[in-house]
Amino acid sequence: MDWSRRRLLATAATGLGIALAGCDTTDNPPPSPGLDRRPVDDYEVERVRNADAVPLFTRGSFPTATGHADREGRPAGSYDHAYVVSAASLDELTFADVPEAKRLRSFAADTDFESGSVYLLTTPVGACYDVRIESITLDPDGDPSGDFCRALRPADVACGVDEYDTVGYAIRLPVAREQTSGHSGGMSSSCRRAPSRVAFDAELTPHGSDGE
Amino acid sequence: MTGSTRRDLLAACGAGLAGLAGCSGLSPFDDGEERVDTGRLAGDLATVALPASPYPISVPASLADRHRERARELLDGVPDSPSIPNAAVARKLRAERDRAATSLESDGDERESWPLDRLDGDRYDRSEAASVRSAYRAAVGEDDGDRLREYRQTIAASRGAFEGDLAYRASDPVAAVLAHEPVEELLAECRDALQPTPPYPDDPRAEPFRAGEAVGTVERSAAALGDARRLRERYLREAADPRPQWDRVAVAAESLERALRFSQDRVEGYQDPGTDVFERDLDGTAARSLYFDAAHDLRTRIEGTKAAVDDADFATAVLDAGRGLAALEVLTAVVTGIREGAYQGDPSLSTVRTGAEASAAAIESALDTEPRGLAVRLCEPALFTHRYAVRSVARYEPDAVDLLAEFRRAELFASAVPEATAFVVERLRDGETAQ
User: Fold this and answer.
1) What is the ipTM score, two decimals?
2) Which residues of B touch A14 (CB under 8 A)?
3) What is the DSSP secondary structure assignment for residue B432, as one 8-state letter?
4) CA atoms lying within 13 Å on the CB side of residue A59
5) Looking at the complex, does the CB of residue B307 fall below 8 Å from at least one CB of chain A?
6) Which residue would you say has higher pLDDT here, B16 or B144?
7) pTM of the shown model
């Protein structure tokens, strides 16, 4: 226990201590990506899990041999996301012939594209893990980005470390778009603990303001 | 190898030496400037041996033994091959158990750390063992939530009673600070760890590692309180004629906090670094790094002192203020030096070597200041900055500019320690007139 935590704390105000804390303590910090993105909180979600690691949708055609008939080995090429802004753009996707894929498609098709749109995700995931939504954000043009993360499933879920499933999401956003210039997605290997987002937002009505 | 691109990168990252570790992977080194090969300085820089611990008494081995025995008991409660349906959870449990066991059995080097620092490591090992143990219990369906809540209430009540009885008993006010600052630090650790964030989960089997983390955090809280109590008891048994020094320590802390705050006038305009205060380009120079870090250091210490006074952690406030006074001298010297053209040349191996010698000499001199224990505590930032810098050369090749800046900073800080020590002693020994 040479350079202990206590010692690091004691010297934290010196140059080395500053440096140890990272690269963000003085001027010219590197630009933070995503600062111009705004979060979307009021979305609706359909989440599915397929235990055969079947890719749930694709823009083209599905791989003929995924090599995961026994659920072992990470399925190749089966991570995808899509942004559906109309019934026509939904028809551009091919959904797998499994109940989970049909649920995603049905959820998307039920969207009123006059007032909403749908972000879709299909991804392989270890059978002992889950995929969670970390955040959904919109860039200044209104194009969405889905940030997801991986978390362990409960301890009493029977699973093997070499087995894979597929997790799919259909996320209905309260954003109508006639067209989109693109969308994006990301997957973190672990889920951050979101800070409390409880905000104080009192609405005061001053007494005596009536009739003014 | 070339250097200025790397310097530019470092400047943008706002980091000193260790920033290299985090940012170097991005550096292309392609602008043709020769880079000083600091790796050649390994084993060739003036070193400073760790002085004897400034804590006024020896730390009983029983404190560490207690943590280690508890940690072993906890780890023994986790089977080698836990039978858990989720194989990934079982695998992670095994890995964390092995990691905790390895850390527990690795002894700290007595030449490289003080007993209180090693005790901190023992508390960490105990906390990690408790985390693993409770994660295992959660994974097999045991819910420790209610017991943890009761445990936290017990710790909070004990801490409150102990803190209320803290009268800074010692033979003199300087000894009171040296003996009680670690106790205050432990009580702060106890308080901070008492409220695990995130809290124990409602469904521990769904989140066993979060459950473990919460229990481990509270275990650390209890361990810190236990150390605080036993250290104080031991000190009171060994100290000659310990009498309450609360008044003097409290008055001195408040006096020093005011002195530090009011003394800032001399560096007015230089505490919130901008790039143009010197009206010259300092990019890639030791001056830039020195100035930014000195300004940050002073701000941090002023804020820390104020917070410690507000929390009635008066021994902590006294040491924070004493280091703040030294930090004020550093910033003053750096600003003056930059105005006069100092710290702006291209460093060579020779200048870095000379910088290390000057830093080591200043630190050795500061450590000889009486009262020695107080001087050592005030000199800690310089001492450990110097030692980290020397070690960094053997671990990677730090940029010469940053390396030189570290030695200059340590030298300036250490040079201010004797006067800061004397000033603090005056306030402590004559608290009434210092008001």
Assistant:
1) 0.76
2) 293, 297, 381-382, 384-385, 409, 413
3) T
4) 10
5) no
6) B144
7) 0.81
